[in-house]
Specification:
The chain is mainly alpha-helical. The protein contains 14 helices and no strands. The chain is globular, with a radius of gyration of 24 Å.
C-alpha cells in the first residue's frame, strides 16, 4: 500500500492522458472492430444491424477500387519518403552549420510546419491551377511555348503533384528531429576526424550517419506511417480523381464510410489498414534493429 502511495502523483498526472487515449483511440478502435463484422450504417434505418461475419472483409479484398487505392498509396509512399528524408536531413545539416545568413534559412524552412495543412493545400491549388497557375507559367517560360500541364487533371501526373506538395508541406517536422539528433553527436568526434584528415564527405559517412542511426529509424517509421495515411491533400484537391488515379486507402475509406454511409464496410477497411501499417512498422523496426 505504501508503495502504491508513492506512485499516486505520477498516476494523477498520467490519468488525463489515459482517459483521452481510452476515449478517443481504444474505444473507437474496438467499436470499429465490432462494426466491421456488421452492416452498420452511419444514419439510423428501419432495418436492424445484422451480423455479417467476414463478408465485409471479403468484399474489400475483392474490390478492384480498393487495390487501386493500395497501389496509389504505395506509389505515393515510395516517392515521398526518400524526398522528405533528403530534404529534412539536408536542411537539418544546413541549420546545424555556422554559415552566414543561416537565420533567414531557418525562418523560411520552419514556415510550412507553422501553417495549417489546409492553408498550404489551398495555396498549392492556386499554384497548380490549369492553365494559368504559377507552375504552368514557369513551365511555359522555360519551354517558350503556350503548352501547359494539367497537374491535377492528368491521371499520370496528379499523384506526383500531390507528392511534391506533401514533401514540401511536412518535411520541417522530420528536419527538427534530425536537428536534435545532430546536436547529440559529440563535437570532439568531428575535431578528431579533422586532425586525421577527413574531408566533409568522410565525416558525414563515418560520423554523422552512424550517429543518426536511431534517429533515422524513428524518422523512417513515422514518415512511412504518415505517407500511408495520406488524406487531406487528396480530399481537398482531387477527391481521388481523375478516374481514381489519386485514390488512397484513407480516401477510399472516407468515401465508403461518410459519403456512402457504409460504416461496417469502412470499419473493415480501417482494421485492414491498421494491421498492415502496424505490421510494416514492426518489420521496419526489426530490420533496422534499433537500440
Amino acid at each position: 500500500m505504501n508503495k502504491l502511495k508513492r506512485y499516486i502523483p505520477e498516476i494523477g498526472m498520467l490519468l488525463p492522458a489515459i482517459i483521452l487515449l481510452v476515449t478517443f483511440v481504444f474505444i473507437p478502435f474496438l467499436l470499429s472492430g465490432y462494426f466491421s463484422f456488421t452492416n452498420e450504417r452511419l444514419m439510423p434505418r428501419p432495418i436492424p444491424t445484422q451480423w455479417l461475419g467476414f463478408r465485409n472483409y471479403e468484399r474489400v479484398l475483392t474490390d478492384p477500387e480498393f487495390w487501386q487505392a493500395v497501389r496509389n498509396t504505395l506509389y505515393f509512399a515510395v516517392w515521398v519518403i526518400p524526398i522528405q528524408l533528403t530534404l529534412s536531413l539536408g536542411s537539418a545539416l544546413l541549420m546545424n552549420s555556422k554559415l552566414k545568413g543561416i537565420a533567414v534559412f531557418r525562418s523560411i524552412t520552419i514556415l510550412p510546419m507553422l501553417t495549417p495543412i489546409t492553408v498550404i493545400v489551398t495555396i498549392w491549388a492556386a499554384l497548380l491551377q490549369t492553365p494559368d497557375g504559377m507552375f504552368n507559367g514557369i513551365y511555359q517560360w522555360l519551354t517558350q511555348s503556350q503548352d501547359y500541364i494539367d497537374w491535377l487533371g492528368d491521371p499520370d501526373i496528379a499523384m506526383f503533384s500531390i507528392v511534391m506538395l506533401s514533401a514540401w508541406a511536412t518535411f520541417p517536422f522530420q528536419m527538427l528531429i534530425y536537428l536534435a539528433g545532430l546536436q547529440e553527436i559529440p563535437a570532439d568526434r568531428y575535431e578528431a576526424a579533422s586532425i586525421d584528415g577527413f574531408n566533409a564527405w568522410d565525416k558525414f559517412r563515418f560520423i554523422t550517419l552512424p550517429g543518426l542511426r536511431n534517429t533515422n529509424i524513428f524518422v523512417v517509421i513515422i514518415t512511412t506511417i504518415g505517407a500511408l495515411s495520406l488524406f487531406t491533400q487528396v480530399n481537398m484537391l482531387t477527391q481521388g480523381g481523375p478516374n481514381g488515379a489519386s485514390m488512397t486507402i484513407i480516401q477510399y475509406m472516407f468515401i465508403n464510410g461518410f459519403q456512402a454511409q457504409k460504416i461496417g464496410y469502412a470499419s473493415s477497411i480501417s482494421v485492414i489498414f491498421f494491421v498492415a501499417v502496424a505490421t510494416l512498422g514492426l518489420v521496419q523496426r526489426y530490420l533496422m534493429k534499433n537500440e
